[in-house]
From TrEMBL:
<dbReference type="InterPro" id="IPR015422">
    <property type="entry name" value="PyrdxlP-dep_Trfase_small"/>
</dbReference>
<protein>
    <submittedName>
        <fullName>Cytidylyltransferase</fullName>
        <ecNumber>2.7.7.-</ecNumber>
    </submittedName>
</protein>
<dbReference type="InterPro" id="IPR015421">
    <property type="entry name" value="PyrdxlP-dep_Trfase_major"/>
</dbReference>
<keyword id="KW-0663">Pyridoxal phosphate</keyword>
<dbReference type="GO" id="GO:0030170">
    <property type="term" value="F:pyridoxal phosphate binding"/>
</dbReference>
<dbReference type="InterPro" id="IPR003329">
    <property type="entry name" value="Cytidylyl_trans"/>
</dbReference>
<dbReference type="InterPro" id="IPR005814">
    <property type="entry name" value="Aminotrans_3"/>
</dbReference>
<dbReference type="Pfam" id="PF00202">
    <property type="entry name" value="Aminotran_3"/>
</dbReference>
<keyword id="KW-0808">Transferase</keyword>
<dbReference type="InterPro" id="IPR029044">
    <property type="entry name" value="Nucleotide-diphossugar_trans"/>
</dbReference>
<keyword id="KW-0548">Nucleotidyltransferase</keyword>
<dbReference type="GO" id="GO:0016779">
    <property type="term" value="F:nucleotidyltransferase activity"/>
</dbReference>
<dbReference type="InterPro" id="IPR015424">
    <property type="entry name" value="PyrdxlP-dep_Trfase"/>
</dbReference>
<dbReference type="Pfam" id="PF02348">
    <property type="entry name" value="CTP_transf_3"/>
</dbReference>
<dbReference type="GO" id="GO:0008483">
    <property type="term" value="F:transaminase activity"/>
</dbReference>
Amino acid sequence: MKILAIVQARTRSTRFPNKVLQKIKGKSLIELLFSRLARSKMLNEVILATSNLANDNLLVDVVKNLGFGVYRGSENDVLSRYYTAAKYKKADVVVRITGDCPLIDSNLVDQVINKFFRDQVDYCSNVDPPMYPDGLDIEVFNFQALEKSYHLAQKENYREHVTPFIRKSNEFKKSSLGYHTDLSSLRWTVDELVDLEVVKKVFEHFHPNIYFSWLDVLDLYNKYSEIFSINRHLIRNEGMNINTGPKLWKRAKTLIPGGNMLLSKRSEMFLPNRWPAYYSKTEGCKIWDLDGKEYIDTFLMGVGTNILGYSHLEIDNAVRSVIDTGNMSTFNAPEEIYLAEKLIQLHPWANMVRFARSESEANAIAIQVSRAASGKDKVAICRYHDCYLSANLCEDDNLFTELESNRVSKNLSKTVFFFQYNRFDELKKLIQQNEIGVIKMEISRNPDPENNFLHKVRKLATDKKIVLIFDECISGFRQTYGGLHKFYGVEPDMAVFGKALGNGYAITAIIGKREIMEAAQTTFIGSTSWTERIGVVAGLKTLEVMERERSWEKITAIGNHVKDRWKKLALKYSIDIDVWDLPALASFTFRSKNAIAYKTLVTQEMLKNRFLAGNSFYACTEHTLEIIDQYFEFLDPIFSLIRECEDSKDVSLFLKDSICHTSFKKLNMQ
């Protein structure tokens, strides 16, 4: 196994000619770099790769006199220079170092090499995302990746900068050496004259020792930051320009399993390394990230929570009044009664209500109460409800089948049974073969109910004395003022509401028939946090605003309009898509082997125009026709590009990030 470090350098730099031959205390920058790099314990050989132009002859002589090898090739096609040099030297692994990094640390080089082998990847670096000072850039890749890049990379930028194709392509396994503090704003490279002045002061400080570590330099910076101030105005030009959000997301994953509290908000689901990830404020359908950039959310609107828009003044003011008068006490909040009465008024079949604060909690409560009421443990579920049952089961015919599960208890799997939507025969067979006590399902997402499916389920549940639960956490208040079951004229025994109920404030509700709900008294269900006041107050005010504005009609109309324009846009460019889900939760899917790459491309390109977008459009009352027109104005050229990719172009060449994830398989990606 031969590990070869290739240092790329030339003397014909536009900004600073002959920079690598500039001297500090009698030694040229290239000599300092090679001397420091040669102390690596992992490298088998270090060579210079420069151009075959005559003006680089002096550089070649300097390096040869130091005792290092030299390879000469194309000046501008640096990828070709690397490939042919590595092939000539019969390298198995290549370490890429640039000649403008005289402060390169051999120990740090060894760390990246070790991580490359430990992670068993094709490419490893400390620059993607950059966490180290500019000037410590290290990239390690195997020869096979270099060879494939050499043959496939076509863009001039890819040929000039060696690794962009590897970094952006899905064909290679990649990892990165991070650091606990983001130091990417520090500039220790030499691209301009002022950079040389900084590096000179560093070497002069440690003279005659030239083998100080990068941590020694960092310590110097912390003690005498004025030494480094002269080039602070210059912008880092190595790697991507990573904003605050992606950097914080990377940090989050070292502290929080999965990075956050909700899988659907992981950056990996959108743009793995470029998604803004965190917000500083919201208003209407707008979000501001941590860098102050303003975006229009034509995507998930809080993952379906804010159908009245973000930071709704009336709702926020109601919550502020609670903050002023008290959110928690030994007594109960009277608004619990008022909200319960309102929900029962909207759903006359129900007699009682329990509240919680999250959708998972509410569904778990519904299961616990219904099992107690039926006297049976076995549950038949349709769609994705298993996480509420503490049995993360995966069946091929159920929603989110890709979820990689670690079962809480295998015994629980014996009480949970799956059936497909619209397959009444499957449900009937389950009930014939098992003592089912509960049926739990969503009303409709995609497809719509067929052959009187919902009414058949209702009758079967009644005949067999099975508790029927409708999960309305997502569908509630989007197509009717209440549950979607009202639209289809089918009444359950219990229903669960969340998401939109508090317009972004945490409040969920379980409503049901008295004879079912009173079973809650026979099993312990409770939480101090469920008795806080903000949630129920927000719920009451949200329902008031919804009723006054008839919000469900507005967002349904918006969703139908968006769906229609998606279809027209796809027809314009002869792109096959499927349009699905409730109008207010409109979504589409590309019918292509590159579907996920296209979804990523849409998100990437729309983000450039300050739109949060993907293959969904969760409507809110703040989405005006002007915003929708602007959305489609930006979406049009993206569909045009997708048409070109369907014809012949490689979509990976247009992606500046990894392709987004399609599932929840890896819950704690590092």
